[in-house]
Amino acid sequence: EDGVTPAPLLEELRATPGIFQVVQTGAPIDDNTPPLIDGAPDPPSSRTFTVEASANANRISLAIMAICTNDGFTGLDSVMLPKGFKPAVYEAAIYDAGSEPNTEAYTDIVDPCQVVGPDTGPPAIPNGNNAPEGDTGIITHHPGIQGVAADRGLDPELHDWQNPAAVITIQRVR
């Protein structure tokens, strides 16, 4: 358990037919910029993990939360696993889940954003605002960080991104 993802969600994923394995990274991934908070740890710019699958597995799905958002994510949906040992490389954009309004306020985003700073002030409780007001329920391309929070919000100069926001490499290892 990573201490961030609620255990019931993990159990629900693991119990879903067709899901073979659930892997968690357990920590944020950063974009190679220096830590924004003096003395803060500098998260790595990549993560590598191994997924084990049955011999007849032929697809992979991957979901990654964009930590300095309240409901932004990226990932892959049912892409074919590469044949042989040649890696498959995917560029992924960030999407908005449409489940919460994009307030950009520190009190409404997930706790790991506090690691990349620049504000160490109170973490989100509990891990996002979970507010139904302003949600659309429709997945769209994320508009990025706009600087809309009036007080103690995300700074676009420090927290915005350019798409593709992630490069995902899948490679068979045995």
- Proportion of residues in helical segments: under 10%
Radius of gyration: 17 Å
Q: Distance N terminus to C terminus? A: 27 Å
Number of helices: 3
Q: Strand percentage, roughly?
A: 15-25%
| Number of strand elements | 6
Low-confidence stretches at least 5 residues in length (pLDDT < 50)?
A: 124-132
Class based on secondary structure composition and strand pairing: mainly beta
Query: In sequence order, what are the helices and strands, one letter per element?
Result: HEEEEHEHE
Order the strands across the largest sheet as they lie in space: 1-2-4-5
The major sheet is characterized as:
4 strands, antiparallel
Q: State mean pLDDT (0 to 100 scale).
A: 78
Name the overall outline.
Answer: globular
Task: Write the topology of this structure.
Blueprint: H1 7-15, E1 59-65, E2 72-80, E3 88-92, E4 95-96, H2 113-116, E5 140-141, H3 156-159, E6 166-170
Antiparallel strand pairs: 1-2, 2-4, 3-6, 4-5
